[in-house]
TrEMBL record:
The keyword Hydrolase applies. Belongs to the peptidase S45 family. Heterodimer of an alpha subunit and a beta subunit processed from the same precursor. Keywords: Hydrolase, Zymogen. It holds the Pfam family Penicil_amidase. It comes from the Bacteria. It comes from Pseudoalteromonas fuliginea. This is Penicillin acylase family protein.
Length: 761
């Protein structure tokens, strides 16, 4: 019997090793070749595609079009499946890969008809831009063809790799609209539903300006003075957890040359996005000739598009944060407004088709909100939403050159932060902004619809070389209070993060790259200090019962530090107070397919008014008094932490609760391959409402710092590797430096691979 068990165990080990060998063998077939030569009729002069020790793609070409081909070739080799997901997501074509499980998401995307819009916009682009996109697409397809074998994702889904088309690059830009701006019209929908279910006073109360305001001119919005609305009689039910929409945002800031030792301006940029494997950005350097002069641009590109998104040409350096201007309105329709139906066909695996019917109007696609028809007028639906003008930043010599380009660029509106080697620094909104003059967070009557929606706003505010020498943005209001009335609130961040960045910048008089990096990693919990004081005071009413929690709070370190138990208690306590206060409202909105999810970031000022004034109608029926309600919030905090992490409070340390987990999209479906596919888990560091933004799979998707003219100390840290292939030497390259806070160089290091593509003739 013992021998039989021994042989069975040995056989199991052998079969396990054999299956592992088969998996690795199949995967190795789709590894791209990073050395060699080839020929193509898509290039005019030889193109070199090199990789350094991090896998950064270094493209050398004689023209911008040839450089686009080289970048496309590298993207096609390293990131094609990711690019495929981006275009399919925007177009509503994921069901062809994943079957009926993706139908709901595809229908949601088809509402916007972005495939059709990309095809129409492509035909209107200047011939030079069409050629740029064509050459990029040729590079993608030839880079993919070089690999020879489909990647494992296609083998598992049984889908075929469809060639890249020029319109697909526009879809990739549209995918960023969906990621960065969909919360704007979702928030407006929630506010419409709140107004209809409650009152306009309730809308104003919930969205009142906070004390955290950090506009560049120091202006403040008028405080709310409408009083606390009476909440209708509440029903008793299980308290709902109100999910918070992830704040697609970013930090950036800059100083002029008066505050650097070199005399050059310096910029910092870290874009906050959901993080998966592979990470969204791709380290890139383009070297090409333009008008007889050499151009070198180093930064990150977005796989699927031929441009450097954030980076430097050594004359200027630039970065973006999401602008959150109001770029969407819901237009209330009446019976006189013409609508019509369009049928969309959604492909499924095996050739099957699912039909989806969409109602359209002259204002945009139509959705029923509380059983009333509204048309969505959104910037992404306009002809000026997407173009290739971002490439012009590569040729800018000064801040003024960059500012001149900003109004014409077709991307989701961003806060452009730009500096130059001569010491200037500036901010301006870059990207598409509707020219209509009266944005609204509530419904707009069709009679008040403005035809200016069809035009891009060219006149927009900017700030250049302020007297303080400092500029900052963090997704909160940047424009003046006066300009806010013109451009509107599309879901601004609360402002705590921007305020903390601003205050930190005024703590020093001279800055180097290391100072900016330290600020990117600043996890001090200034925002939660009032919540800490509230909870500590509450717990001290019974020191015997609460001693271990009091000790944790007294040692919380005032930061989202990895070993802080107190931080976890304060953060979760705040969440539970909000859940209890607004659970009935969330339940009411849910009945109309609505949610407070997109309004939750606005609630802080209202919550504190409620806590300080304790109105009786805002006591949840589960509790008899405000004190009981606040104590109940802490009891729920402890109950949920215990359910999630056990009753050992040491397991409640913030670094464990907020552990960084960056996963491949297929890892959950294939747990046995999770270790191969995912990034290593890392102790959590940072949170929301502070410069060091980090969630379990969300945070700074890159960290960039540069002084143009002095790039030897420039930094570009990314939480993942260049390649999407799990057996690539570059699959995890740079990840450990990112989680350890090391200064990963922006500029390419030693080049270790090279492909040369010669003209076919």
């Amino acid at each position: 019997m013992f021998k039989l068990i021994k042989w069975l165990l040995l056989l199991t080990v052998i079969l396990g090793l054999a299956s592992t060998a088969v998996v690795y063998g199949v995967l190795s077939l789709s590894l791209p070749a990073l050395d060699g030569s080839g020929r193509s009729n898509a290039v005019v002069e030889p193109v070199k595609i090199s990789r350094d020790v991090l896998g950064q793609a270094v493209i050398n070409a004689n023209s911008r079009n040839d450089a686009a081909y080289g970048l496309g070739y590298a993207h096609g080799q390293d990131r094609f499946f990711q690019m495929d997901l981006l275009r399919r997501n925007a177009a509503g074509e994921l069901s062809e890969l994943f079957g009926e499980a993706a139908l709901g998401l595809d229908k949601k995307m088809r509402f916007h008809q972005l495939r059709k819009r990309s095809q129409i916009i492509l035909q209107t682009l200047p011939e030079a831009d069409k050629q740029l996109l064509k050459r990029y697409a040729q590079g993608v397809n030839e880079g993919l063809a070089q690999v020879g074998y489909s990647s494992f994702e296609y083998l598992l889904t049984g889908a075929t790799q469809k060639p890249w088309q020029s319109e697909d690059s526009l879809l990739v830009i549209f995918s960023m609209y969906l990621d960065l701006q969909s919360a704007t019209f979702e928030r407006d929908q929630a506010l419409i539903q709140i107004e209809q279910a409650y009152t306009k006073q309730m809308v104003d109360f919930l969205t009142q300006p906070s004390k955290y305001q950090a506009a560049l001119n120091g202006s403040r919005l008028a405080p709310y003075s409408g009083g606390i609305p009476t909440l209708p009689t509440q029903t008793q039910h299980t308290v709902k957890s109100i999910e918070a929409n992830q704040e697609r945002g970013s930090n950036n800031w800059a100083v002029t040359g008066t505050l650097t030792k070199t005399g050059a301006g310096m910029v910092s940029d870290d874009m906050h996005l959901s993080m998966a494997v592979p990470v969204i950005w791709y380290r890139t350097q383009l070297n090409y000739m333009q008008n007889g002069a050499p151009t070198q641009v180093t930064g990150v590109s977005l796989p699927g598009a031929p441009a450097i998104v954030v980076g430097t040409n050594n004359n200027i350096a630039w970065g973006f944060t999401n602008g959150y201007l109001d770029t969407a309105d819901w237009i209330a329709l009446n019976d006189e407004r013409k609508t019509w139906q369009v049928d969309e066909s959604i492909a499924l695996p095996g050739g099957e088709v699912e039909n989806y019917s969409l109602i359209l109007s002259e204002y945009g696609p139509v959705k029923y909100i509380n059983e009333k028809p509204y048309a969505l007028s959104w910037t992404a639906h306009q002809s000026y939403a997407v173009n290739m003008q971002l490439v012009k930043l590569e040729q800018a010599k000064t801040v003024d050159d960059a500012l001149a380009v900003a109004s014409d660029v077709g991307i989701p509106v961003q806060n452009l932060m730009v500096v130059d080697s001569q010491g200037s620094a500036a901010w301006k909104n870059i990207g598409a902004i509707p020219a209509r003059k009266t944005p609204s967070e509530l419904g707009v009557n069709a009679d008040d619809y403005s035809v200016l929606w069809q035009q891009n706003e060219l006149q927009r505010p900017f700030v250049k070389n302020p007297q303080s020498g400092r500029l900052w943005t963090g997704n909160s209001r940047v424009v003046s209070a006066e300009d806010n009335a013109r451009f509107g609130n599309g879901g601004y961040a609360l402002g705590a993060r921007s305020s903390q960045i601003r205050d930190r910048l005024f703590e020093k008089q001279t800055f180097a790259e290391s100072d900016f990096y330290a600020l990117q990693l600043d996890n001090q919990a200034r925002f939660l200090m009032p919540w800490h004081a509230l909870l500590l005071k509450q717990l001290k009413t019974d020191t015997t019962k609460n001693q271990q929690y009091i000790t944790a709070l007294e040692n919380w370190q005032q930061c989202a530090c990895s070993n802080s138990i107190g931080y976890t208690l304060v953060k979760r306590y705040r969440d539970e107070v909000i859940n209890i206060l607004f659970s009935n409202m969330e339940d009411e909105l849910n009945k109309q397919q609505g949610t407070l999810k997109y309004v939750k970031r606005d609630l802080e000022p209202a919550v504190w008014q409620l806590i300080n004034n304790k109105p009786n109608t805002w006591i949840n029926p589960q509790f008899k008094s405000w004190d009981a309600q606040l104590h109940g919030a802490f009891s729920q905090t402890i109950t949920k932490l215990t359910e999630q992490f056990g009753n050992n409070v040491q397991s409640w340390q913030w670094g464990k609760v907020n552990e960084l987990v960056i996963e491949h999209p297929f890892a959950k479906q294939m747990p046995l391959l999770a270790k191969l596919l995912n990034m290593p888990t890392a102790t959590g560091f940072g949170d929301s409402y502070m410069p060091a933004v980090q969630g379990r799979s969300f945070g700074a998707s890159q960290r960039f710092i540069a002084q143009p003219g002095h790039l030897e100390h420039a930094i570009m840290a990314i939480p993942g590797g260049q390649s999407g292939h799990p057996l690539s030497e570059f699959y995890r390259a740079g990840f450990s430096d990112y989680v350890e806070g090391k200064h990963t160089p922006l500029l390419p290091q030693e080049l270790i691979h090279q492909i040369v593509i010669e003209p076919a003739q």
